[in-house]
Structures are given as structure tokens and as C-alpha cells.
Specification:
138 residues; alpha+beta; CBS-domain; 3-stranded antiparallel β-sheet; 3-stranded mixed β-sheet; 6 strands; 20% strand
């Protein structure tokens, strides 16, 4: 199980956002996806932050009161987002995720975004391994 890596189960085509994207456009993009948030990247696909549903909710609530869309992703994203490497162990990541809130991590290689991985992806990996060992005991 230790040999299973993040790249084996990550989503290689996540919804991403740019810092200068209007917040309402980011909301529409997020709602069309199955993600609860997403990586914010620059023109070179370098990870510069993360924006979550909660981040958007707080800002959009204020914006909707005044019926304005004057904010961008950079106004409410979390800079210096937590990220994992594609070669990281699924088990180590599961241990890291268990006690903390993030449900989704950007996956990077040399600072560039290559995907995302969610708790559901990790549960799928663990479930597949458990299924294997239960049907083919040693």
C-alpha cells in the first residue's frame, strides 16, 4: 500500500482559476465542476493559491448585498496553499488529511500544478487495496 502514489489516483484535469478572474466568473466555473474549491495558478501553471467555496461565500455574500462584482479571485483566495507532490504516498497523505480540514489538495511537480487529489480519491485507493487483500488473502 505504501507504493501507491498520489499520481495513481489524482484528477489530472482539475478546474483551475487565475488571480485576475472576476469572482462571479469563478463561482460559475466552480458550480459547473464537482470540486469544492480549486487551485489558483499563474500563466506558467505555477500554484499561487487556493480558493474554496467558503472563501467565495464570504466575499460574494458582501458583494450580493450591494449587487456588485468588483472582486477577483486574488481578493479572497488563500495564498501559499498547501500542496502535495505527485510521488507522495497515498497512505502518508491520508494520515496528513485525517485530522485536518482540507478535503482537496493541489498536486505539484517542481512547483507546477499537475492535478488535484481529494479525500474521495484517497478513499477509493484504500478501498481498492482493501478489496484486493480481502478477495486474495495472503
Amino acid at each position: 500500500m505504501e507504493s501507491i502514489t498520489v499520481k495513481d489516483y489524482m484528477n489530472k484535469r482539475p478546474v483551475t482559476f487565475s488571480q485576475d478572474m472576476p469572482l462571479f466568473s469563478a463561482l460559475e466555473k466552480l458550480l459547473r465542476s464537482q470540486q469544492t474549491g480549486g487551485p489558483v495558478i499563474d500563466a506558467n501553471k505555477r500554484l499561487v493559491g487556493f480558493i474554496s467555496e467558503q472563501d467565495m461565500l464570504q466575499q460574494l455574500l458582501r458583494d450580493s448585498y450591494h449587487c456588485q462584482d468588483s472582486h477577483t479571485v486574488s481578493d479572497c483566495m488563500t495564498p501559499n496553499a498547501l500542496a502535495v507532490e505527485s510521488e507522495d504516498s497515498i497512505i502518508k497523505l491520508a494520515e496528513m488529511m485525517a485530522p485536518t480540514k482540507p478535503k482537496l489538495y493541489p498536486v505539484v511537480d517542481e512547483g507546477k500544478l499537475v492535478g488535484i487529489i481529494t479525500r474521495r480519491d484517497i478513499l477509493r485507493a484504500i478501498g481498492m487495496q482493501m478489496g484486493e487483500c480481502l478477495t486474495h488473502p495472503v
